[in-house]
Write a structure and sequence with these properties.
Largest sheet: 5 strands, parallel
Oligomer: single chain
Keywords: DNA-binding, Phosphoprotein, Transcription, Transcription regulation
Order of helices and strands: EHEHEHEHEHHHHHH
GO molecular function: DNA binding
Pfam families: GerE, Response_reg
Strand order of the largest sheet: 2-1-3-4-5
Distance between the termini: 45 Å
Radius of gyration: 17 Å
Number of helices: 10
Protein name: Response regulator transcription factor
Amino acid sequence: MIRVLLADDQPLIRSGFRALLDIEDDIDVVAEAADGGEAVALATRHLPDIALIDIRMPVVDGIEATRRIAAEPALAGVHVVILTNYGLDEYVFDALRAGAAGFLVKDIEPEDFLHAVRVAARGDALLAPSITRKLIDRYVTQPPATGAPAGLAHLTNREREAVALVAQGLANDQIAARMVISPLTAKTHINRAMTKLHARDRAQLVVLAYESGLVTPRTS
């Protein structure tokens, strides 16, 4: 059973998402919150698999809520998915850096929404190649951040290669084909890299790859 927390300051939005989720046999909405602070408190109490959090809320916004959840070891199993009306704006980018596993635009089709919840519950990032390319574009005009993340020097060559392919937006089967290995081995390389870099998920791995300079954006 996939346990879901909904956080949005608009009751109508929450009820709409809940109506979609409640009819699914494998999904259970365990709590609802009207602001980010309440979302963090309810996440601590209920330990959901997924926290669907609106990016713009009063009192505590979605970015700060994501940051608090990501910083709490007891909530390491909670995958935050940001809800937004605005696509990949600066707020979504900041949320990914704070530890969000991905984001969904609120006008998403119902079947795509349900699929996304299940994808996030598996621990996969909700970053389609087109979204990854937008993230990359943000770094074309930005120099790498100073200081490499802890663990970068401990990556093996194969782990570095896998991270680079993740940062290009490739899925595990595509990475496996590029590296001429099995999908399971590809996943193992990626998981080990995330552990060494202290990345919560693939979304944060992409951000770390570019911020550290491990991967350099192409300008052409």
